[in-house]
């Protein structure tokens, strides 16, 4: 009888595209749509400016892997993040992001999607992430901030608000309106 081997970070290096290790298996993550990709890019760009200004941490875009050591999860690949720790060079980040952003796709709604998003958010917080954004561009409640201080009751940010990611990113405001593209005429 052959034992089932759990996927490792070393296995993840061989994967093409975005993936995470969840419950011992490599879970592939499909490409993002235009609106969600734009929002994640704007967040990463704002975080990059913050990191340069404060000389604190690294802004991370959407295809990076963070190796963690939880019972049911060995990695994360957020849509955007802030990492405060040793620079890994060409390797995956070792440890959790301080701040993680998950931008929902159009089909990420309903009870099963909500349960999956909640489980991932709680896993981030269990790994040591201080703040998590759940971004839903199709909702009036565009950004939900969950933190170590409030893992189940979010702070809500709507269009017109300046969102933040306290305590992970001190003194960093991000206009919610910046998550939406201003279409230009061709």
Structure in words:
The chain is α+β, with helices and mostly antiparallel strands and 186 residues long. It has a single domain (32-179), classed as tt1808, chain A (Alpha-Beta Complex), CATH 3.90.1570. It is 23% helix and 30% strand. The chain contains 3 helices and 13 strands. The protein has helices at residues 9-13, 34-54, 111-127; strands at 19-22, 25-28, 58-60, 66-67, 75-76, 80-83, 93-94, 99-103, 131-135, 143-147, 150-157, 162-165, 169-175. The strands form 4 sheets. The chain has a 6-stranded mixed sheet, with helices on both faces. Strand 1 (19-22) and strand 2 form a beta hairpin. The longest helix has 21 residues, at 34-54.
Q: Name the CATH architecture.
A: Alpha-Beta Complex
CATH topology description: tt1808, chain A
Give the overall silhouette.
globular
Major sheet characteristics: 6 strands, mixed
Our count of helices gives: 3
Number of strands: 13
Strand order of the largest sheet: 3-6-8-9-10-11
The percent range for strand residues is 25-35%
Number of domain units: 1
Strand pairing plus helix content: what structural class?
Answer: alpha+beta
Provide the succession of SSEs: HEEHEEEEEEHEEEEE
Gap between N and C termini, in Å? 62 Å
Radius of gyration: 16 Å
Residue share in helices? Answer: 10-25%
Strands, helices and their partners?
Elements: H1 9-13, E1 19-22, E2 25-28, H2 34-54, E3 58-60, E4 66-67, E5 75-76, E6 80-83, E7 93-94, E8 99-103, H3 111-127, E9 131-135, E10 143-147, E11 150-157, E12 162-165, E13 169-175
Parallel strand pairs: 4-7, 8-9
Antiparallel strand pairs: 1-2, 3-6, 4-5, 6-8, 9-10, 10-11, 12-13
